[in-house]
Design brief:
Helices cover 23% and strands 30% of the residues. It has a three-stranded mixed sheet with strand order 1-2-3, with helices on one face. With 64 residues, it is an alpha+beta fold.
Amino acid sequence: MKKRTPSVENVVVDEAHQRTYVVMACRTLTDGELFSAIRLALMKRGAGPLQAGERLVIDASNVM
């Protein structure tokens, strides 16, 4: 199976906290897949929460 590069931007905007999450994947992700990818990326990041207006780009190429 040929590995594809992530080319689809799945964008989630948190208006309450003024944050934007961009999850790069090979296809459009479901809500559950998006939030799981965001949660894992934030846990791996280890830092505090994003600042207001910050944008986090996540590579979720392992999501099938």
